[in-house]
Design goal:
Elements lengths: L1 E13 L5 H15 L5 H26 L2 E10 L4 E7 L10 E6 L5 E5 L9
Antiparallel strand pairs: 1-2, 1-4, 2-3, 4-5
Helix pairs in contact: 1-2
Protein name: Glycine zipper domain-containing protein
Pfam families: Gly-zipper_Omp
């Protein structure tokens, strides 16, 4: 863990992800709606078209719903280094001048948290 000071912040968006769940759920719903149209082979074509369109729409909806508001934080470390971290924004957010701790995971990812100070009660 390294201590440092936030020297810059920027609000960013972490893009969402469209997974198999969104595509398949949309395809199932699209197919069900398509089956309510027409008769015979027309109904089959409508169901197939509904599945394709539903799959695309389902993936797009899932991607939009899984977006995350985040902050890009530039931290000047006490040891002289600098690190830039993008992480999901949670209250309270960070502002320039905040003292922080930067924790590095074995995977190489870093996480910034507000530093905790021990004081003697004198300010």
């Amino acid at each position: 863990m390294n201590a440092g000071t936030v020297v810059a912040t920027r609000d960013v968006v972490i893009e969402g992800e469209a997974t198999y769940v969104g595509h398949s759920s949309g395809a199932i719903m699209g197919s069900a709606v398509g089956q309510t149209v027409g008769k015979g082979s027309g109904r089959t074509l409508a169901a197939a078209g509904g599945a394709v369109v539903g799959g695309l729409v389902g993936g797009a909806v899932e991607k939009e719903l899984s977006k995350k508001h985040a902050q890009e934080l530039t931290v000047s470390l006490d040891d002289g280094g600098t690190v830039v971290v993008v992480q999901e924004r949670k209250a309270p957010g960070f502002v320039e001048g905040d003292r922080v701790s930067v924790t590095h995971a074995p995977s190489g990812e870093a996480y910034v948290s507000h530093a905790h100070y021990e004081t003697d009660g004198i300010y």
